[in-house]
Write a sequence for this structure.
């Protein structure tokens, strides 16, 4: 076995289920064209709630990708994760034949912020409306944060290290870092990512306590980070799953490395302490750069957290200046999530997927609905910008105070 330092983690497969596309191809097409799909909330039971605008996944039929026996025991957030995992495995060309003799060589890691709210709400309504005999047995597992990890593992026959990361929205990047550490310890491949379904009535009511949630009813104006019109964020459902493999193992089976996950760091600064998040996020960026052995000037694009709260946006801009120095004024910054909403733990994984695709296509996608940027950042707005992209920085912060940064580089893997 190669030493831990020699075991590099490469992305070989991407699967996306998002408001702007229920495949990686459709997601990227909408992302690079700067299409905004934010719209009025249409989910049943949400009509009279204060949340008016969100990013809903439409045109998604889980039965097209998942067997009925799995559908009946899982929530919508797990449907998204399982479907995205299917797409990622297909993209990586990783099938059962590749690990039939070594099922313990493949693990699963997901991140989750809200769990199965829709399933849980339905079963609790049956409990109080009809009685305990009307509550299905899967209520005990479908709501749980680890449900997606468990079901992907069971369905795929993956018996390697499995886990779930519950570390706020930044958990999407933390899950990827967890996968990289698992690979360094000897696992050959990890199916990793996050998907959320926070738009059931119960889930929406739980979010109404977030002061940073946008309450505007105009989809064009509801989520505009880095502008004077910033008034909070818009939530979304969906997410992405990736296949991350040890570079030599991927090469041995003929897989193509699409990107190398070079470095990660995470910090914690406390719930809604956005001024303090400047130092915490800057520390995470420096840590990720150090882990990646990457200089600030090597960063070719930043996928920003872009919360849409003035104090948080200011802190992020200053954190980039603190960590990247003079390069912060020159590096293009983008936040495609302004066109889809923030899918909580799924948001940074979608950003990382977009970063891989951006590097492959040599173009920085725009930041939909954002004009008149009021911070010292080169935010890409309007239309996509052609650029030579080799190294990307992805940022994420959570409402409860987590900060994370990840550095990735275009594949194939560089020499050790």
């Amino acid at each position: 076995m190669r030493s831990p330092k020699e075991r590099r983690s490469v992305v070989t497969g991407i699967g996306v289920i998002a408001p702007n596309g229920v495949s990686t191809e459709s997601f990227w097409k909408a992302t690079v064209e700067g299409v905004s799909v934010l719209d009025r909330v249409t989910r049943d039971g949400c009509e009279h709630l204060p949340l008016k605008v969100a990013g809903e996944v439409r045109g998604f039929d889980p039965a097209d990708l998942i067997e009925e026996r799995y559908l009946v025991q899982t929530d919508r957030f797990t449907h998204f994760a399982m479907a995205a995992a299917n797409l990622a495995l297909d993209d990586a060309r990783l099938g059962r034949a590749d690990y039939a003799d070594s099922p313990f060589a493949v693990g699963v890691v997901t991140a989750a912020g809200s769990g199965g709210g829709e399933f849980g709400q339905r079963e609790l309504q049956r409990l109080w409306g009809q009685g305990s005999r009307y509550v299905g047995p899967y209520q005990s597992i479908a709501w749980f944060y680890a449900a997606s990890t468990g079901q992907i593992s069971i369905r795929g026959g993956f018996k390697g290290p499995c886990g779930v990361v519950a570390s706020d929205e930044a958990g999407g990047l933390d899950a990827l870092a967890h996968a990289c550490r698992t690979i360094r310890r000897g696992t050959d491949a990890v199916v990793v990512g996050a998907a959320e379904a926070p738009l059931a009535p119960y889930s929406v009511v739980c979010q109404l306590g977030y002061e940073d949630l946008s309450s505007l009813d105009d989809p064009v104006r509801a989520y505009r980070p880095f502008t004077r019109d910033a008034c909070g964020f818009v939530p979304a459902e969906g997410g992405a799953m990736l296949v991350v493999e040890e570079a030599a193992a991927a090469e041995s089976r003929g897989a193509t490395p699409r990107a190398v996950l070079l470095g990660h760091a995470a910090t914690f600064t406390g719930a809604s302490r956005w001024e303090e998040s400047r130092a915490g996020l800057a520390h995470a960026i420096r840590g990720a750069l150090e882990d990646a052995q990457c200089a600030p000037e090597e960063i070719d694009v930043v996928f920003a957290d872009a919360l849409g709260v003035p104090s948080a946006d200011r802190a992020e801009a200053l954190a980039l200046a603190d960590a990247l120095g003079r390069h912060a004024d020159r590096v293009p910054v983008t936040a495609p999530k302004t066109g889809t909403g923030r899918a909580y733990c799924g948001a940074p994984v979608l950003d990382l997927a977009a970063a891989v695709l951006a590097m492959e296509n040599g173009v920085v996608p725009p930041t939909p609905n954002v004009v008149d940027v009021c911070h010292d950042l080169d935010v890409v707005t309007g239309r996509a910008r052609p650029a030579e992209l080799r190294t990307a920085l992805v940022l994420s912060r959570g409402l409860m105070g987590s900060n994370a940064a990840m550095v990735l580089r275009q594949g194939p893997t560089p020499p050790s």
Q: What stands out?
A: Residues 262-410 form a domain with the Peroxisomal Thiolase; Chain A, domain 1 fold (CATH 3.40.47.10). The longest helix spans residues 274-292. The two ends are 15 Å apart (CA to CA).
